[in-house]
Amino acid sequence: MPKPQRAIVLLLDSLNRHMLGCYGGQEFSTPNIDRLAKRSQVFTNHYTGSLPCMPARHDILCGALDFLWKPWGSVELWERPITYDLKRQGIVTKLVTDHPHLFETGGENYHTDFFAWDYLRGHESDPWRTRVDPSWQGAPTMPAATKYPDKASAYDLSRTYFREEQDYPGPKTMQATADWLKDHGRHHESFLLFVDEFDPHEPFDTPEPWASLYEDDWADERIIWPPYATDTIANGVISARQAKHIRNNYGAKLSMIDHWLGRVLDILDTENYWQDTMVILCTDHGHYLGEKDIFGKPRVMQYEPLGHTPLMIAYPGAAPKPINQLTTNVDLYATLADLFDVTPNHKTHGVSLLPAITANQKSTRDWALGGIFGNWVQIQDGRYKYARAPVGDNFPLSMWSNRWSTMPVPYYPGLRLPEPDARAYLDYMPGSKIPVIRQPFQSGDMLPFWSLGGSTDDHYLFDIENDPEESENLIGTAQESRMIDLLETALHEIEAPKEQAQRLGLPSGR
Question: Quick one: 76 and 192 in the same domain?
Answer without folding.
Answer: yes
